[in-house]
Write a structure and sequence with these properties.
Blueprint: H1 19-62, H2 69-91
Helix pairs in contact: 1-2
Length: 95
């Protein structure tokens, strides 16, 4: 049992956060997550359109429609998404 002036050894050296600080922190985290969702959604839509344009350009150069067009589209979209999402997570705060 602890006295009034004793500190819990499990608590460490920092004081416990007040309820208001925890609420503010939770609101900030929620806003950050919402902004990330919007950013990644807009980026995903842009990447979809870019992959479609790239595939159309590749097919125009080849002079024909590819037999496995959907598979090639998927590979382009996946590569673009992996690279661009990694860049966003690295350079955008809270990403």
């Amino acid at each position: 049992m602890q006295g009034a002036g004793e500190r819990d050894s499990r608590a460490g050296s920092r004081p416990a956060a007040s309820g208001w600080t925890m609420v503010q922190s939770a609101q900030g985290a929620t806003e950050t997550i919402a902004m990330q969702m919007i950013l990644f959604t807009v980026l995903g839509i842009g990447l979809y359109l870019l992959a479609d344009r790239l595939l159309d350009g590749i097919e125009a150069r080849a002079g024909r429609r590819f037999e496995y067009r959907s598979l090639i589209f998927f590979a382009l979209l996946l590569a673009l998404a992996v690279v661009s999402f990694a860049i966003v997570r690295r350079f955008v705060p809270g990403g």
